[in-house]
Amino acid sequence: LGSALMLKKDLARAHKTFDDLIQVAPHHPMGYLQKGRLLLLQRKEKEGLAQLEKALSIEPNMVEALALIAGVYIQQKETRKAIDRVESQIKISPKNPYYYNMLGRLYEAGRQADKAESYYKKAVEMNPNISGFYVSLGRFYVRQNKAAKAIEEYTTAIQKSPNSLEAHMGLGIIYHTQKQYDKAKEAYQKALRVNSRFAPAANNLAYLYLEQGGNIDEALNLAQIAKEQVPDDPNISDTIGWIYYKKNIFTRAIAYLKEASEKLPDNPIVRYHLGMAYYKSGDKVSAKRELKKALELDSKFEGAEEARKTLQTIS
Asked: Using CA of residue 159, residue 162, residue 166, residue 167, what is the dihedral sign?
């Protein structure tokens, strides 16, 4: 009930609900956890931290409470304080693999990659059956530009949990970046078999169909599924706009691409897409503005050559 009231922004009643829960079950951590979360929502960090610490004192393995505490310190740009707090909890709960995974993220945030890697690996060693730990390590390797190692971790995650959306998506993005398009398509398709309305996979697969030869109507269907799930995502608007461009429906293309460009003004590909749509619609002034801006942002983006050729025909 309290959580529902929080969602409805009825914070006074939510407070009362959590206070009642604490009164009824003073030795159960949940009331303190929820009250702490509510206080943080109200930006009352000091009081919120006190409630979360109380929850942890009752249940030392309450991962959510420790994650919220560490999150407060990170927001306050106190990474060292967050690390110290997690390390002190590990002394109390040394067999909790989630705490080592958390420590990996914190050391990574503190730009200590070697320590981060060792703690991500420690979590995996402590419980090799949790696919999420391999995903965390895989994402770390992606951020460290170690694609081969990331692929290895995502693949292991899928072996442990074949329905791991994060692992399928992670593989898809790596293969997409490496221009291994068939492998990327396969990974996105597997993600969609797990969840047919998973917006990131639907959008990326739509774009691949569009750019690498595929059914354009299927691409539009996938992109619209993504748009339904995440209506404000400018990347999805860009995909739909570019599909309409390819279908020669330029007015509709411009509407979606303008929406994307307003939210991603420094993305050269979005500006290029919008410029090309203006060009094909006959608005050469707007086309010139957008294509020039795209090339100013990045002279080597995919499509830059076509942008230059189109500008020459306008001039």
From this structure: positive
pLDDT tens-digit profile of 17-33? Answer: 887 778 888 899 998 99
The rounded distance, in Å, linking the Cα atoms of 165 and 205 is 14
Q: Cα(185)–Cα(69) distance, rounded to whole angstroms?
A: 39
- Please give the Cα distance from 205 to 118 (Å, whole number): 34
Residue 288's nearest CA partner among 268, 261, 307, 264 is 307
Give me the DSSP letters along 198-220. Answer: -HHHHHHHHHHHHHHS--HHHHH
Place of tokens 């969609």: 192
**Shortest CA distance to 164 belongs to which of 148, 187, 147?**
187
Q: Which two tokens stand for residue 51?
A: 């409630």
3-class SS of residue 146: coil
Beta strands in 52-140 (DSSP E): none
33 in Cβ contact with 46 (< 8 Å): no
Kind and range of the H or E element at 246? helix 234-246
Q: Is 36 helix (H, G, I), strand (E, B) or coil?
A: helix
Q: Which residue from 31, 48, 30 is spatially nearest to 39, judged by alpha carbons? A: 48
Q: Which domains does the chain have, with CATH numbers?
A: 226-315 (1.25.40.10)
Residue 5 has pLDDT above 60, yes or no: no
Type of residue numbered 254: I
Structure tokens at 128: 């090799």
| Type of residue at 212 | Q
Residue with tokens 């190692």: 149
pTM score, two decimals? 0.85
Q: Tokens 């390590």, residue?
A: 137
